[in-house]
Amino acid sequence: MLRNDRYYTFKAAEYAYTYSIRTYSTYIHSNLLIEGIRKKVASLERSGWKILFSWVKAHAGTYGNELADRLAKEAARSEGTNYEFTRIPKSTLYQEAEEETRQKWQRERTTSHKAAATKHYFPTVRDRLRTKINLTPKMTAVLTGHGMTRAYLQRFHLSEKATCSCGHENQTMDHLLFHCTNTSIQREILKQQISPWPASKQDLISKYQKEFSAFVESIDFELLLQSAQ
Ligand SMILES: [Zn+2]
User: What residues does 170 pair with on adjacent strands?
Assistant: First the structure.
Protein backbone atom coordinates (compact mmCIF):
# COMPACT_ATOMS: atom_id res chain seq x y z
CA MET A 1 0.00 0.00 0.00
CA LEU A 2 2.84 2.28 0.81
CA ARG A 3 4.15 1.74 -2.67
CA ASN A 4 0.84 2.56 -4.33
CA ASP A 5 0.50 5.58 -2.15
CA ARG A 6 3.89 6.74 -3.33
CA TYR A 7 3.03 6.32 -7.00
CA TYR A 8 -0.25 8.03 -6.48
CA THR A 9 1.34 11.02 -4.91
CA PHE A 10 3.95 11.46 -7.61
CA LYS A 11 1.46 10.97 -10.40
CA ALA A 12 -1.00 13.37 -8.84
CA ALA A 13 1.71 16.00 -8.70
CA GLU A 14 2.63 15.38 -12.30
CA TYR A 15 -0.97 15.80 -13.41
CA ALA A 16 -1.53 18.82 -11.27
CA TYR A 17 1.60 20.44 -12.58
CA THR A 18 1.03 19.65 -16.23
CA TYR A 19 -2.63 20.42 -16.51
CA SER A 20 -3.47 22.98 -13.94
CA ILE A 21 -0.56 25.16 -12.90
CA ARG A 22 -1.72 28.02 -15.07
CA THR A 23 -4.46 29.39 -12.89
CA TYR A 24 -4.41 30.93 -9.48
CA SER A 25 -6.39 28.42 -7.48
CA THR A 26 -4.75 25.46 -9.10
CA TYR A 27 -1.40 27.10 -8.61
CA ILE A 28 -2.13 26.92 -4.90
CA HIS A 29 -3.44 23.41 -5.31
CA SER A 30 -0.35 22.14 -7.04
CA ASN A 31 1.83 23.87 -4.48
CA LEU A 32 -0.02 21.98 -1.80
CA LEU A 33 0.47 18.75 -3.68
CA ILE A 34 4.15 19.39 -4.09
CA GLU A 35 4.41 20.28 -0.42
CA GLY A 36 2.58 17.05 0.35
CA ILE A 37 5.02 15.09 -1.76
CA ARG A 38 8.00 16.75 -0.16
CA LYS A 39 6.72 15.71 3.26
CA LYS A 40 5.90 12.21 2.06
CA VAL A 41 9.38 11.76 0.59
CA ALA A 42 10.98 13.03 3.80
CA SER A 43 8.89 10.71 5.93
CA LEU A 44 9.58 7.68 3.71
CA GLU A 45 13.29 8.42 3.77
CA ARG A 46 13.21 8.63 7.54
CA SER A 47 11.73 5.16 7.61
CA GLY A 48 14.47 3.76 5.40
CA TRP A 49 13.04 4.16 1.91
CA LYS A 50 15.26 5.25 -0.91
CA ILE A 51 13.16 7.34 -3.29
CA LEU A 52 14.09 7.42 -6.96
CA PHE A 53 12.29 9.30 -9.71
CA SER A 54 12.12 7.49 -12.99
CA TRP A 55 10.19 7.52 -16.21
CA VAL A 56 7.68 4.73 -16.72
CA LYS A 57 6.08 3.98 -20.07
CA ALA A 58 2.43 4.95 -19.87
CA HIS A 59 -0.51 2.71 -20.80
CA ALA A 60 1.74 -0.32 -21.05
CA GLY A 61 -0.07 -2.32 -18.43
CA THR A 62 2.39 -1.66 -15.63
CA TYR A 63 0.19 -2.29 -12.64
CA GLY A 64 1.48 0.47 -10.39
CA ASN A 65 1.42 3.01 -13.18
CA GLU A 66 -2.09 2.16 -14.34
CA LEU A 67 -3.29 2.46 -10.78
CA ALA A 68 -1.46 5.74 -10.37
CA ASP A 69 -3.06 7.11 -13.54
CA ARG A 70 -6.49 6.20 -12.37
CA LEU A 71 -5.98 7.59 -8.90
CA ALA A 72 -4.37 10.75 -10.22
CA LYS A 73 -7.31 11.39 -12.52
CA GLU A 74 -9.69 10.91 -9.64
CA ALA A 75 -7.58 13.19 -7.52
CA ALA A 76 -7.47 15.82 -10.24
CA ARG A 77 -11.27 15.73 -10.52
CA SER A 78 -11.98 15.85 -6.84
CA GLU A 79 -12.26 19.09 -4.89
CA GLY A 80 -11.25 17.40 -1.68
CA THR A 81 -7.53 18.04 -1.85
CA ASN A 82 -7.47 21.10 0.33
CA TYR A 83 -6.53 19.37 3.56
CA GLU A 84 -3.51 21.60 3.93
CA PHE A 85 -5.78 24.59 4.35
CA THR A 86 -6.42 23.45 7.88
CA ARG A 87 -2.82 24.16 8.76
CA ILE A 88 -1.77 27.11 6.60
CA PRO A 89 -3.92 30.24 6.71
CA LYS A 90 -5.55 30.82 3.34
CA SER A 91 -4.40 34.41 3.38
CA THR A 92 -0.78 33.27 3.53
CA LEU A 93 -1.26 31.06 0.52
CA TYR A 94 -2.89 33.84 -1.46
CA GLN A 95 -0.14 36.24 -0.48
CA GLU A 96 2.53 33.78 -1.56
CA ALA A 97 0.75 33.08 -4.81
CA GLU A 98 0.28 36.77 -5.46
CA GLU A 99 3.88 37.58 -4.73
CA GLU A 100 5.06 34.74 -6.95
CA THR A 101 2.72 35.84 -9.72
CA ARG A 102 3.86 39.45 -9.40
CA GLN A 103 7.51 38.40 -9.62
CA LYS A 104 6.81 36.26 -12.66
CA TRP A 105 4.93 39.13 -14.32
CA GLN A 106 7.84 41.45 -13.53
CA ARG A 107 10.40 39.01 -14.96
CA GLU A 108 8.42 38.62 -18.17
CA ARG A 109 7.87 42.33 -18.40
CA THR A 110 11.53 43.17 -17.86
CA THR A 111 12.70 40.85 -20.60
CA SER A 112 9.91 41.62 -23.06
CA HIS A 113 9.88 44.44 -25.61
CA LYS A 114 6.13 44.46 -25.40
CA ALA A 115 4.28 46.97 -23.26
CA ALA A 116 6.94 49.58 -23.99
CA ALA A 117 4.43 52.44 -23.71
CA THR A 118 2.98 51.14 -20.48
CA LYS A 119 6.41 50.89 -18.87
CA HIS A 120 6.82 54.66 -19.07
CA TYR A 121 3.70 55.14 -16.98
CA PHE A 122 4.34 52.18 -14.69
CA PRO A 123 8.04 51.36 -14.50
CA THR A 124 7.40 48.30 -12.34
CA VAL A 125 4.59 45.85 -11.88
CA ARG A 126 4.39 47.02 -8.28
CA ASP A 127 3.70 50.57 -9.50
CA ARG A 128 0.89 49.26 -11.67
CA LEU A 129 -0.64 47.22 -8.86
CA ARG A 130 -0.42 50.16 -6.49
CA THR A 131 -2.19 52.54 -8.84
CA LYS A 132 -5.96 52.54 -8.87
CA ILE A 133 -7.07 53.70 -12.23
CA ASN A 134 -10.30 54.14 -14.13
CA LEU A 135 -9.52 52.37 -17.37
CA THR A 136 -11.71 54.02 -19.95
CA PRO A 137 -11.13 53.17 -23.64
CA LYS A 138 -9.21 56.42 -24.09
CA MET A 139 -7.04 55.89 -21.02
CA THR A 140 -6.34 52.33 -22.10
CA ALA A 141 -5.17 53.57 -25.50
CA VAL A 142 -2.97 56.16 -23.83
CA LEU A 143 -1.37 53.74 -21.41
CA THR A 144 -0.80 50.95 -23.89
CA GLY A 145 -0.13 53.07 -26.98
CA HIS A 146 -2.50 50.75 -28.82
CA GLY A 147 -5.19 52.20 -31.04
CA MET A 148 -6.69 55.66 -31.55
CA THR A 149 -3.76 57.11 -33.52
CA ARG A 150 -2.91 57.12 -37.20
CA ALA A 151 0.58 55.77 -36.54
CA TYR A 152 -0.90 52.77 -34.79
CA LEU A 153 -3.56 52.10 -37.42
CA GLN A 154 -1.04 52.44 -40.22
CA ARG A 155 1.05 49.67 -38.72
CA PHE A 156 -1.88 47.41 -39.40
CA HIS A 157 -2.66 48.98 -42.77
CA LEU A 158 -5.87 50.46 -41.42
CA SER A 159 -4.84 54.02 -42.14
CA GLU A 160 -3.26 55.30 -45.36
CA LYS A 161 -0.79 57.55 -43.63
CA ALA A 162 0.66 58.05 -40.21
CA THR A 163 1.06 61.81 -40.52
CA CYS A 164 -1.06 63.83 -38.11
CA SER A 165 -3.68 66.24 -39.42
CA CYS A 166 -1.69 69.08 -37.83
CA GLY A 167 0.91 68.31 -40.49
CA HIS A 168 3.89 68.36 -38.15
CA GLU A 169 4.78 64.75 -37.56
CA ASN A 170 3.46 61.23 -37.28
CA GLN A 171 0.37 60.93 -35.18
CA THR A 172 1.64 58.80 -32.32
CA MET A 173 0.07 58.83 -28.88
CA ASP A 174 2.95 60.89 -27.51
CA HIS A 175 2.50 63.38 -30.33
CA LEU A 176 -1.21 63.82 -29.56
CA LEU A 177 -0.64 64.13 -25.83
CA PHE A 178 2.43 66.32 -25.71
CA HIS A 179 3.08 68.05 -29.03
CA CYS A 180 0.08 68.25 -31.33
CA THR A 181 -1.28 71.73 -32.02
CA ASN A 182 -4.77 70.21 -32.32
CA THR A 183 -4.73 69.39 -28.62
CA SER A 184 -2.93 72.49 -27.38
CA ILE A 185 -6.01 74.10 -25.81
CA GLN A 186 -6.68 71.02 -23.68
CA ARG A 187 -2.97 70.71 -22.91
CA GLU A 188 -2.82 74.30 -21.66
CA ILE A 189 -5.45 73.46 -19.06
CA LEU A 190 -3.39 70.49 -17.95
CA LYS A 191 -0.17 72.52 -17.84
CA GLN A 192 -1.78 75.08 -15.52
CA GLN A 193 -2.53 72.35 -13.01
CA ILE A 194 0.91 70.77 -13.01
CA SER A 195 4.17 72.27 -11.94
CA PRO A 196 6.80 71.90 -13.02
CA TRP A 197 5.76 71.05 -16.54
CA PRO A 198 6.53 68.70 -18.18
CA ALA A 199 5.92 66.03 -15.57
CA SER A 200 7.13 62.48 -16.14
CA LYS A 201 4.56 59.99 -17.35
CA GLN A 202 4.97 58.20 -14.06
CA ASP A 203 3.99 61.37 -12.19
CA LEU A 204 1.11 62.06 -14.55
CA ILE A 205 -0.47 58.76 -13.63
CA SER A 206 0.48 58.63 -9.96
CA LYS A 207 0.50 62.24 -8.68
CA TYR A 208 -1.74 63.94 -11.24
CA GLN A 209 -4.06 61.18 -12.32
CA LYS A 210 -7.23 63.23 -11.89
CA GLU A 211 -5.92 66.09 -14.04
CA PHE A 212 -4.31 63.79 -16.57
CA SER A 213 -7.48 61.70 -16.91
CA ALA A 214 -9.55 64.83 -17.52
CA PHE A 215 -7.05 65.87 -20.21
CA VAL A 216 -7.13 62.46 -21.90
CA GLU A 217 -10.94 62.31 -21.84
CA SER A 218 -11.15 65.80 -23.33
CA ILE A 219 -9.30 64.73 -26.48
CA ASP A 220 -11.48 63.66 -29.39
CA PHE A 221 -9.28 60.89 -30.76
CA GLU A 222 -11.88 59.78 -33.30
CA LEU A 223 -12.04 63.21 -34.82
CA LEU A 224 -8.26 63.51 -34.94
CA LEU A 225 -8.05 60.17 -36.69
CA GLN A 226 -10.55 61.16 -39.32
CA SER A 227 -10.08 64.83 -40.02
CA ALA A 228 -8.88 65.80 -43.49
CA GLN A 229 -5.20 66.06 -44.59
ZN1 LIG B 1 -0.67 66.61 -34.61
Answer: 163
